Amino acid sequence: MTRWHRWPFGAVRAGGLFRGRAADLTGKVVIITGASSGIGRAAAHAFAREGACVVLVARRAERLRAVADALAEMGAAAWVMPADVTCDHDLEALVEHALGACGRIDILVNNAGLAFGGGHHALEPARLRRLVDTNVYGPCASRSSSCR
Ligand SMILES: NC(=O)c1ccc[n+]([C@@H]2O[C@H](COP(=O)([O-])OP(=O)(O)OC[C@H]3O[C@@H](n4cnc5c(N)ncnc54)[C@H](OP(=O)(O)O)[C@@H]3O)[C@@H](O)[C@H]2O)c1
User: Fold this and answer.
1) What's the gap in Å between 75 CA and the centre of ligand 1?
2) The domain that contains 59 carries what CATH number?
3) Per the domain annotation, does 99 fall within a domain?
4) 2 pLDDT more than 50
C-alpha cells in the first residue's frame, strides 16, 4: 500500500518524490512580492499554472507588466500592483487594491528581498538599513497588512 506524507513542496510518496498537487489552488488569490524577477516570477508562473489568480508586486512596474503579459498569454488572471514592501502606505494601498480587484486574499508569498553581498560595503549603515527594512520589516509589515 502506498504511504503519503505532507511536504512543503508537494506530496511525498514513500520511496520517491511525487510531483503532484498538494492542494487545489484553482481561483485562489495569491499575492507574490518580488514577482518582477527570479524566484518570485517563477512562483507567479507556478501558481498561475495551478489556476490561481496572482497579484504581482515589486517596485518596477514595467517588469511586473512583462510578467503579467506572459501570464496572460497562458490564460491566467494576473494583476500588476507596484509597491515597495518597506513603505507602509504602499502596503495599505496594495491590500486595498487587491481586495477591490479580487475580493479576498488567500495566500501571501513573502518573497521580496535583497541579497546580503559580501565585503565591508555590506555593513555600511545606509545599506544595512535597507537590507533590514527590505528583508525583515518588509515581510512582517506585508503579513500584517494582508491579515488585517
Ligand atoms: N536566489 C537564491 O539563491 C536565494 C537564496 C536564498 C534566499 N534568497 C531570497 O529569495 C528572495 C528572492 O530571490 P531572487 O534570487 O529571486 O532575487 P531577485 O531576482 O533579486 O528578486 C528580488 C525581487 O524582490 C523585489 N524587491 C526588492 N526590494 C523590494 C522592495 N523594497 N519592495 C518590493 N519588492 C522588492 C525585486 O523587484 P524590484 O527591484 O522591482 O522591486 C525583485 O522582484 C530574496 O529575498 C532572496 O534574498 C534567494
Assistant:
1) 26
2) 3.40.50.720
3) yes
4) no
- Residue 38 Cα to ligand 1 midpoint, Å, equals 7
Q: Is residue 4 part of a domain?
A: no
What is the extent of the structural domain holding 117?
A: 24-146
- Give the contacts of 16 (CB within 8 A, at least 6 positions apart): none
Pocket flag, ligand 1, residue 90 (CB < 6 Å): no
Q: Does the beta carbon of 58 lie inside 6 Å of ligand 1?
A: yes
Cα separation, 127 vs 107, in Å, equals 30
Q: What is the pLDDT of residues 109-120, one digit of tens each?
A: 999 999 887 777
Residue 56 Cα, ligand 1 centroid: separation in angstroms? 13
Number of domains in the chain: 1
**Residue among 23, 82, 85, 75 nearest 53 (CA):** 75
5 belongs to a structural domain: no
